[in-house]
Write a structure and sequence with these properties.
By secondary structure, this protein is mainly alpha-helical. The chain is 69% helix and 0% strand. The protein is built from six helices and no strands. α1 crosses α3, α2 crosses α3 and α3 runs parallel beside α5. The longest helix is centred in the last third of the chain and has 16 residues. It is globular, with a radius of gyration of 15 Å. The two termini are 30 Å apart.
Length: 114
């Protein structure tokens, strides 16, 4: 896994256009994360914009949304887009009984997700 990650990093750092494409469309979560990271090396704001694009894509799987949100959290940037999307995603899944991330007493998202 480490070797593959380093190979992907080398590829995406050398070809940012490919990284941008993979960041918003890959079904492989490692590829998506490393592509976002590579773009962020040069421009964090652009990487966050690509991450939001990926989150808004209806073809992005739930698992990929979690990966993208994790990437966004790692940038330590606070944006309303991150918070509102995370709340919407996790609240909906919690209401369906698919996740247990809500506080039992309040029904609100767990503070670690905010």
């Amino acid at each position: 896994m480490v070797k593959r990650t380093l190979e992907l990093a080398q590829t995406y750092l050398g070809d940012l256009d490919k990284a941008r494409e993979v960041a918003v469309s890959s079904q492989d979560n490692l590829e998506r994360y490393v592509a976002l990271w590579a773009v962020a090396v040069y421009n964090v704001e652009e990487a966050l914009h690509l991450a939001v694009t990926a989150l808004n894509n209806t073809k992005t799987s739930y698992e990929s949304c979690v990966v993208v949100l994790y990437f966004m959290r790692q940038t330590q940037k606070k944006t309303d887009e991150i918070l509102s999307f995370a709340e919407k995603l996790f609240w909906h899944r919690t209401r369906l009984g698919l996740l247990d991330f809500a506080e039992p007493s309040t029904g609100q998202a767990h503070p670690s997700l905010v």
